[in-house]
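Model: You mentioned two targets. I'll fold them one after the other.
Researcher: Yes, keep them separate.
Model: Target one:
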Amino acid sequence: MTSHSVTWLPLAQAHALWPDGWREALARAHGTAPPLADASMVCCVEGPLSLPELAWDGDAHWPPGALADALALPAGTHAPELLLVRGDLHVAGAVTALASPPGAAAPALVVCGNAHWGHAVLENTPVAITGHLQVDGLLWGSGTDPAEAGATGPGLEVGGTLGAQVALFTSGYGLRTGGERLLAYRFGTEFGDQDLTAFSAEPLAAVFDPACLHGLAVGEDGGLGALPDRTAVRLALHAGQPVLRSPDAIAADLASDTALCQDGALHASHLRQLLRSRLLDAAHKKATGWFGQTDFMLCRQHVDDEGDTYGDGLFMTVWKTWDFHLSIDDGTARQGWWQRLTARLRSAPPPPRSDGLALMHRRYAGGVPGPWEPLAEDGDPAAIQACLLAWRGVLGYARKAVAQARAGHPVWRRLQAALTPARIEALAQLPVFTEQYNDWWGTERNGWWEGDVWVGVRQPCMHEGEPWGLALKLSWRNGTEAPGDAPDDAHAAYQLEIEAAAPGAPPAVRITCAQRQSEPRRPLPLHAVDHAARLLRWFTVLEKRLHAAHGDTAQGHETP
């Protein structure tokens, strides 16, 4: 084994000996947290350094086995507050840098050179790389959200290019780079418009091996970091087991038609592209969908059954906050719904913008919508920002739907293969549903919370003179109640119902969903890619967990 020169000395002395900018990079990696003191002990290693793995876990596991072997560190060596590698650092396996116990300073890592790692899980730990950093698989930075406004926690500082297959940054863990970010999949608010989980956490679930997920977690409303199972991820990395699905599987499930409305701008030509996309087909003049607190209706020009004429347009609602209507109006469709809408303005319909797009909006106050008003390009900044955010969500939804349609709807096919009448019936016959939670219309025994998901079954029965078939309901908290909402209204749901078929035909499964409890459930549309993926994940995990709890492991099925 190659021998490495190791020097132990206080931080101030290390900086005096090697004043080449690394301490400034370390200070930036600390964010606004207090930097290391001059007397902090530093373990300086002359690189290049190559290790099979680096479990940089502070006092709890010091010295790390691979590092102890490489540096000939005796057992019982006191953990330094900074590991400084003066040269390149290559780690074939995983770098796991975990936070120290509460109240202690997190260990820091500085590489004065380039770094190449297999995976990296960095928890509340300042890490600075003065050169380039390449992570072949998972790069997960997790921090503690600062309590004070404007404060920033520890993070990763990379002087050059950063590359990774999956980059996940949660709970305020920072990222600063001096070069390009070559990241195939980006998750977390750190990435702004490129965050694949901006409107649904399900894309993050698609990249992890199912064994490394909290399978019945939602992962939204600020809880993105709760979706991966931290303990399972660390154990898998230390055992050399996969934590991510195969690149082909990830690419298939996260396919997105980025050529659709290519630069994502909000203008008339892009609305026309949406209207011509596979989100709508010849048989359907409307497409409706929802994500989080936003729902939408995309509509082609037509006359409905009530005789109302609809123009080409997009209606978007952010629950009891904003309504937006985008249209391409040439004057031929100003009757019916459009006429009723513009009549509220008590004036002529608003002229279209310079690009031909007519945009109207209304704001809610106390849960009550205000008047419809035109939204000009230089209009209310808050309204424009909210409209652009909703538009971006709808566009992301449509791009996934179009890509899945082109590939033959693989996620939907897997969902249909899993949600068979036989598997739903086998689940519903478990004692937890037949003996314990067996009162669908009651309040105490109609279901229970399993992780983030409420679970209930309606057994076939007669209720108030009406026959009811078997149903499985999965519900979850979706935002918060707005003014005027009923208690507990902010719960979304999927419901699976076994429907009787014609004589001689097998029974069918009807899948419905609702964004809120007060809304009627509607069939889950084929284009609802994230919903289909979430329902598939929850059903297969619940099925396996409940059958195992009842000692019936033979009934468990792997995720298709």
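Model: Target two:
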Amino acid sequence: MTDQPGTPAQGPDHEQGRQGDPRAGQPDRNGRPAQPVHPWQGASTGARGVPASAAPPPARVNGSAEPPRLAPKPLHRPPVDPAQSSSFRRPPGVTGSFDPNRRNLPVRGIEGTTPPAAPLASAFGRPEDSTEQLQRAPGEQPATPEPAEDPVLWNSDERDPWRNPAAGAVLGPPAASVEQEESEPTEAGPLLSVREVLFGRRVETRALVILTVIVVLIGLVGGFLGRITAEEGNPLLNPSVTLAEVEPAQDRPKGTVAAVAQRVVPAVVSIEVRVGAQGGSGSGVVIDGDGYVVTNNHVVSMAADTPNAKVSAVFHDGTRAPARIVGRDVKTDLAVIKVEVSNPTVAQLGDSDALSVGDDVIAIGSPLGLAGTVTTGIVSSVHRPMRLAGEGTDTNAVIDAIQTDAAINPGNSGGALVDGNGAVVGINSAIRTLGAGGEGGSIGLGFAIPIDDVRRIAQELIRTGHVQHADLGVNAKSVSDGLADGAQVQNVQDGSAAAAAGIAEGDVIIRVGERKVGSADELVVAVDRHQVGEQIPVAVVRQGRELVLDVTLR
């Protein structure tokens, strides 16, 4: 036989190798027909996989030798344990990883146990018609509804592709929508400081203007509400009250006391104070339609700081009404009380500066508890400095009094001193007597607080409940050298108005503003006529020379 180029030689050895190979004639693992097995395959090979005993002759192509081809590495299949093959092999006819035809799989891969014995099931098992998981006492209800049992993965009527491993791949929407991603809260940035807001150009100018307007509006509304709250916080105070003054009369008619008394007596009340077993009485004048009554501080001072004290006002017709103290001023011996009555008769307030010595006046009050008592007299003097103090009261005042010879007795304190036209020109406050200790009746020396001072003090008490007085800041005594009188400075308080103006100890003050000063009491009333913060000239005599110093009162 002639050899063909490129064809291995055929001979007995070749056929013998095919017959000895057990894989000869069998299809491979992929079902392809078996390839011819060369006699050197499956035997021991050398370094290149060629049998050590014999190697195939080199093929020739067009008369040249072809290099030998590398043979595949033989497969090694270890033997399979029959027991493991029985447990883990695929069922017959199944080529994939799961059996789609099997429906009787155990729940969650757990094999059920054998049913319990009948006595145990009867004693401890749940009733046949019950679906509860826990055993409960008869009639007991669960505190919270039990959640429904989770459906069995793919062994149920659900066809959820996420729970059924046998489901095919299906394209669907993204797991998180765009709206959900946008609605996720973002981290807050750093807060801006006031400097960055105003000067850092981080906020638009228009926004700053709007913010400023809003803040101003809020402040105005808050201030308005605060004022209303402050005003309504104390029902005794009335910041809007103004005590009116009547026009002074040019003529002073005679023989009209009865007409004046008829008009003024209903506006004067008797005031009674009770503190336990003790008591006192005085008079008062109605000065405002809301029931405000002005009186002397020494009339009501005993009831000011006593919880169980009772103050009442008795009108000319016998009507009695409880009263409450609005405010007191111990430096002028004035106080204001409020009586809850409707439509009271209000007295007209006159002008005390228009009074002249010799003018007719009428004193109305309740001396010794006798309500509605009317006495007449004249003005004996004006601008008479009088110091008021006494036992049982905290009054320590110096008043610029109107002196009258109209009969004034204990109980007249707080009553009205009226001019010939029926206008109140003063509040009766004190008398001078000849009796020891100040006891006794009228000897024609009565003193009243000018209504101009009363109007100012009472108005401040009604509005705020207290009064602030101007203070020079010196202690003085009355002196006279035979030619002139004055108030000599004994000491100057540190930080006072006098210290700031340069007033020194030993200086004799002879004038405050436009008023001459002839005594220490007159210095007090001269300073008290001015307001806090007012700048006034003060004339002093220092080492025989007169100096004028500008003083700002504090």
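Researcher: Noted. Anything on target two?
Model: Residues 1-24, 37-55 have pLDDT under 50 and may be disordered.
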